[in-house]
Design brief:
32% of the residues lie in helices and 17% in strands. The chain has helices at residues 10-16, 20-33, 36-42, 81-84, 87-103, 116-130, 134-138, 177-180, 191-217, 226-232, 299-304, 362-371, and strands spanning 73-74, 78-80, 106-110, 149-153, 167-172, 235-243, 255-258, 264-269, 275-279, 282-286, 293-297, 314-316, 324-332.
Length: 386
């Protein structure tokens, strides 16, 4: 049975044998907390009120565009890892990488060496996980943002004033895959094997890219040995995202404007557009490039680079016709590590710059995430010095 305008539907109250008021308070809230795939499967034709953004935050049109215009698009800078491995071309690729991190905070990585079968397999098993019956998915549901394996909805469903149109499966990949894979969902039956192989391959790409990005900064491994830690003992977490087709996409977002916490995030996405980045005061839609990774600078890297690299706001739009799957892999230093600007970049005695950021650690970020509301989640702002 289609649920028409869940929060205001009298038919469902008759179906459940409850008063209409009881449905609005109980059933509507219950449906929302079960996630958007559950709502989509129920056949809703209007968004519940919990998902409707204030008029000023709705994505109905791009910033600076006339009503009805198509949102502006962007072809992100491209970093070709095959060229990075050619000694005579490395300098040019490093220059492209530095400019992308400084001016966009985003770029696309091609010729990264990850087998196409691993990429297709990851997107396929992700889609099949979200197609499981709700009770199977709900075994992993938790409101605890610290849980290493967590199925949830929105951004932070416990505190978000307005929910966003996303369900996700969080998979911690640290301290080692061997340690954590047994705690991952065992359905679909091949999820652990496929996701673990993908996570391992994704980490190799991250190591190549972050090493190049540090070299482009001119600090190599750094006095504090950050590259060695990132390569051997850093943190890694994957978030598998599902954005079902939405009955009123102009009223909501799949993800609100936010920046990412770690050093670099590598995003694998299917061929359905939705990712938007803030650039020049405008939301730009990223054109999906099959088989590539979209990479963005995280808060840690902006802090470590003392602001030379930019961790920029981005968001996800949804559409009314096609579901979208993405897999975001977040890479950074170990959770106990305190991150501040690299010593090589600051201090007058070194010819460096004034420190622009406070030190931070993972516990500080988790405390922020647990307390902040869904609008404009930008942890970085809380670490900037005047």
């Amino acid at each position: 049975m289609a649920i028409v305008g869940l929060a205001k539907n009298g038919d469902l109250s008759q179906q459940h044998g409850k008063s209409r008021g009881a449905l609005v308070d109980d059933d509507a809230a219950d449906y929302c907390l079960k996630g958007v795939r559950h709502l989509s499967d129920a056949g809703i034709t209007r968004l519940p009120g919990r998902y409707v953004l204030p008029a000023s935050d709705r994505p109905g049109r791009s910033i600076g565009a006339a009503a009805g215009d198509t949102p502006a698009r962007v072809k992100l800078p491209v970093v070709d890892l095959a060229r990075l491995r050619v000694p005579t071309e490395r300098a040019a690729v490093l220059s492209t990488l530095y400019t992308a991190c400084r001016d966009y905070g985003f770029f696309q990585v091609v010729n990264h060496g990850v087998d196409s079968q691993a990429i297709v397999g990851m997107l396929d098993v992700a889609a099949r996980f979200f197609e499981l019956p709700f009770p199977e998915r709900a075994r992993h549901m938790s409101p605890d943002v610290r849980a290493p394996v967590r199925y949830g909805t929105s951004f932070n469903q416990a505190n978000d004033a307005v929910l966003c149109w996303r369900d996700f499966l969080k998979l911690s990949c640290a301290p080692t895959l061997r340690d954590v894979v047994p705690s991952w969902p065992d359905s679909p039956a091949d999820l652990r094997e496929v996701a673990a192989a993908y996570a391992e391959a994704n980490r190799r790409v991250f190591v190549d890219v972050v090493e190049a990005a540090l070299e482009a900064l001119g600090i190599g491994d750094g006095e504090d040995g950050v590259m060695e830690e990132l390569a051997t003992a850093g943190s890694q977490m994957m978030t598998v995202n599902c954005y079902p087709a939405c009955p009123q996409p102009e009223l909501t977002l799949g993800m609100p404007p936010h920046s990412d916490y770690g050093f670099l995030t590598l995003v694998l996405q299917d061929d359905v557009e939705g990712l938007q980045v803030m650039h020049g005061g405008e939301w730009l839609t990223v054109d999906p490039v099959p088989g590539s990774f979209v990479v963005n600078v995280g808060d840690h890297f902006e802090i470590y680079s003392n602001g030379r690299y930019k961790s920029v706001l981005h968001r996800v739009r949804v559409n009314s016709t096609r579901p979208r799957i993405s897999v975001a892999s977040f890479h950074s230093v170990g959770v106990e590590r305190v991150v501040g600007p690299a010593a090589e970049l600051i201090g007058e005695e070194r010819g460096g710059e004034q420190r622009r950021y406070m030190d931070t650690d993972f516990a500080t970020f988790l405390a922020y995430l647990a307390s902040a509301e869904g609008k404009h989640k930008n942890f970085l702002q809380s670490r900037r010095l005047a």
